[in-house]
Design goal:
191 residues; 76% helix; 0% strand
Length: 191
């Protein structure tokens, strides 16, 4: 989708640009963050290609902490070093923290109402749909993956079966399938 070389693509202009961009991103992505992050960073701002997004998102997932916060710090650090990472982190956390504290106060007051419980269940379904839609949108980038679309699909199905159907702990699935994928990719990339 975004075939411009890295030096010709738009980049954050300053730490303030990072702060404002990630604040707006955080305010949009309440619940289903990955879909919003992908759309904003790849399609709208064009700071990354789909392939770069998938690679960075994979790294962000294995790092401790929230994926989107890790990704924001990686982008900030790549653009402006430590100062950029802190600006992106502040952008990701400040406004949502204030909103969550306000929502906690409201929830404490109205949590006994059945409509509130129903609304929260509905938001969960929407978030699941956003994640599924984003996964389908990003699947096209797997064609260029070193493992190929077929093997990536098999690994994805195995991962889904292990976690959703067999209820295996995520850490064991990550170590098992992730380790297998890393070894296979290393074997294919080895000269």
């Amino acid at each position: 989708m975004n075939s411009l070389p890295a030096q010709d693509r738009p980049q954050p202009q300053s730490p303030t640009d990072l702060f404002v961009s990630f604040t707006l991103l955080a305010l949009q992505g309440f619940g289903g963050v990955m879909a919003v992050v992908q759309r904003e960073l790849v399609e709208k701002k064009r700071w990354m290609t789909r392939e770069e997004f998938i690679e960075d998102w994979a790294v962000a997932q294995v790092m401790p902490g929230p994926n989107v916060v890790n990704l924001s710090m990686m982008i900030g650090a790549r653009s402006f070093g430590f100062k950029g990472a802190m600006a992106a982190l502040a952008g990701m956390l400040t406004a949502p923290l204030i909103l969550v504290l306000l929502l906690a106060l409201v929830y404490a007051r109205f949590s006994d109402f059945p409509g509130v419980a129903g609304a929260l269940r509905g938001m969960g379904a929407v978030a699941a749909g956003l994640i599924a839609a984003t996964a389908l949108k990003l699947a096209g980038a797997l064609v260029k993956n070193v493992l190929g679309l077929r093997l990536c699909t098999v690994l994805g199905v195995l991962c889904f079966a292990a976690i959703a159907l067999l209820r295996w702990p995520l850490v064991y699935v990550l170590i098992g399938l992730g380790g297998t994928a890393c070894v296979l990719a290393y074997q294919k990339l080895k000269p």
